[in-house]
Specification:
- This protein has 447 residues and is of the alpha+beta class.
- The protein has one domain: Outer membrane efflux proteins (OEP) (Up-down Bundle).
- A four-stranded antiparallel sheet has the order 1-2-3-4.
Length: 447
């Protein structure tokens, strides 16, 4: 999303006949959602999640593990120093002797260890990419939980407003029945719709509790009051508009694909390391030793010896283990290549799905806004018609139901549209704090 997303959609007209219900809806929304501005916004939840999400923390820990594996792979190629001490007692005379020494060794050439180090460094880079992917996944999960909770709050507010409207109509039908103006069937019909509305409210309350739990799972904290979307929401198609441009971006930049490519490259290095078990190795050592015995007590000098050696080792036969190691490394590389291809296809599909979701979201925003305006006008006209005797109680009950359905569809479309834009960024591998900040400006008080 960009700063150009500031064009406002047409505001829904208010109708005098619905002012009381609208006031009740606002009160209920404030009570159930705790959405009084200011509340915690999207960036606030993002910061909480980054410091508390166990999935991201696990990815970071695994990166640390791989960094240490790279250090361990390098260590055998560096100088190695060992010290030793020995004390012996002879029999039967009981004479004692001792020796102290130090050995310094250095690998001069070991192709297998060099290729292993190369593989571990590639895997270290791959784990860096997986951490970036985990951060993007966390941003997407935060967005889903945030706008999912807002949607659940809006759904509950609409359900409660709808229930209040049916309660009002049930009371109105009862009064008209007692005055002899309507039949008993109108009273029973109004009570039926009211009872069904109470059930919808219960379901909405359960959905809200689940949405709160989903957000708490990510942040590790009780879900706070959230800042809702602004009433005026822009409706813009993806930029660029061509879905193929998004696909190309995903194939080039998505960190999960980068991690798998690096894994395949590390697999190639592991094959080379396994083949290098056939290759000779060359090392040098410097061995210094000093020995002594009873002569030390007589203030005589002990014997010292220093040896410098260069060792060439040529593997001849290892019982077939070397060839097996090469085959195993090749199978591992092949498995990584297939995983890469599967992820590539999944990225293409996800980009296409989310790109279409944004396009559909634009259309839904416009159509549901028009539906709300039409439903409110129809409800106001039906109320007036019932007062004049030209519309029935059934007409009014259906008009109330239609208005609630239209309002809920519009609220869902608003939240789904903003979320779809963020999920498209994630599918393309570019979801980060910049994109979250753009979405954050769509909240109340953040323009």
């Amino acid at each position: 999303m960009t700063d150009s997303m500031t064009r406002e959609m047409t505001r829904r007209p208010a109708h005098p006949g619905l002012r009381g219900l609208a006031a009740a809806a606002l009160a209920l929304l404030s009570f159930t959602a705790g959405a009084n501005t200011p509340g915690v916004d999207l960036l606030g939840i993002w910061q909480q999640a980054r410091s508390a999400d166990p999935v991201l923390a696990e990815a970071q820990a695994r990166r640390g593990i791989q960094q240490e594996r790279a250090v361990q792979a390098k260590a055998p190629l560096l100088p190695q120093l060992q010290a030793s001490a020995e004390d012996t007692r002879g029999t039967p005379d009981g004479q004692r002797s001792h020796a102290v020494g130090a050995t310094l060794t250095q690998v001069l050439f070991d192709l297998g260890r060099l290729r292993t180090l190369e593989a571990e460094r590639k895997l270290e880079s791959a784990q860096d990419a997986r951490v970036r992917s985990a951060e993007q996944d966390l941003a997407a999960r935060v967005a889903r939980a945030y706008f999912g909770l807002l949607s659940a709050q809006a759904a509950l507010a609409t359900a409660q407003t709808n229930e209040a409207a049916y309660a009002q109509q049930a009371a109105h039908s009862q009064a008209r029945f007692e005055a002899g103006l309507v039949a008993q069937v109108d009273v029973e019909q109004s009570r039926t719709y009211h009872a069904l509305a109470r059930g919808n409210t219960e379901q909405a309350q359960q959905a809200l509790a689940e949405a709160r739990a989903a957000l708490a799972e990510i942040t590790g904290q009780t879900a706070p009051a959230l800042r809702p979307l602004a009433s005026a929401l822009p409706a813009l198609p993806p930029e660029p508009a061509d879905v193929q441009a998004w696909v190309e971006q995903a194939l080039q930049a998505h960190p999960q694909l980068a991690a798998l490519r690096l894994g395949v490259a590390a697999g190639e290095s592991r094959i080379a390391a396994a083949r290098a078990a056939h290759a000779p190795t060359l090392s040098a050592s410097l061995d210094s030793q000093r020995t002594g015995g009873p002569a030390i007590a007589d203030n005589q000098r002990g014997r010292s010896q220093t040896l410098l050696a260069v060792r060439l080792t040529v593997p001849l036969f290892a019982g077939g283990a070397t060839a097996s190691g090469v085959r195993a490394a090749a199978f591992e590389r092949d498995a990584l290549q297939e995983a890469l291809e599967a992820e590539r296809r999944a990225r293409v599909r996800e980009v296409q799905v989310q790109h279409q979701a944004v396009l559909s979201g634009v259309a839904l925003l416009q159509s549901t806004a028009a539906a709300v305006a039409a439903a409110e006008s129809a409800l106001a006209a039906t109320r007036s018609g019932q007062a004049l005797g030209t519309r029935s109680n059934t007409d009014l009950l259906l008009a109330i139901q239609t208005q609630a359905q239209a309002q809920r569809a519009h609220d869902e479309a608003r939240h789904a549209y903003v979320l779809a834009r963020l999920l498209l960024q994630q599918a393309a591998g570019s979801l980060g704090e910049t994109e979250l900040t753009a979405a954050n400006r769509l909240l109340q008080g953040n323009r």
